[in-house]
Amino acid sequence: MATMKNVHGNTVDHLGAAIVAGRYPAGSSMPPEPKLCEELGVSRTVIRESVKSLVAKGLVSTGPKVGTRVQPEDNWNWFDPDVILWKSKAGLTREFLRDLQELRRIVEPAAVRLAAERASAQDIAAIEAAYQGMRRAVEEGGDYVTHDLQFHQGLLRACRNRMMVQMSKALSSLLRTSFEISTSRKDGPRQSLPLHRAVLDAVIARNPAKAEKAVLVLIDGAQQDIELVLANRKKLPRLNLPAPRLKAAA
User: Could you tell me if 222 and 124 lie in one domain?
Assistant: First the structure.
């Protein structure tokens, strides 16, 4: 059963990544089932189930006499983590990063305000643990980006809004991209630590206005980092690769 799931998942991943990369342009028809079966070495059942998954993600539509047609980007489910991962593999664009950054600026400050009002002791302990992981990575070396991601995901969970938590899955791609860009800057992580501490302290103090103001400082700093990388035409991080690790402080 697990093997069948893996075959299905790999097939969806292969076809989804190919669509997002532009191998099958919007409006075009996907190759017929027999050709896909031969190309991927899987059964017709696997192809059909994979196409159903792609329909659910908004990447393709099916119908009698028209076969399986690729949908335009506007129809894709941009809140689906797979779609975002495939986009990262194909290469994050300026427009995609702008959309995500704007979404973050709308969602995260509001979520942090709610977190300052609603966070449980367990929520705060998880965010504190993530912060301590960031601090250790700065001082001793290690995986700063993963702890940074856990910090922000913890804030979004602490707002106690299920829809906001679902949205955080889409935001996670931008957060990780931002963190990797910031981490690549000399002393970027060390300089951002007190900014993160200010957000957490405001949540602990149950001060929504202060928490919102502190997280906006973080978001605007990330925006500047991204704009700098785009302006210099540097390569953007790939989300399908492991996050870079910090070296221990000298």
Answer: yes
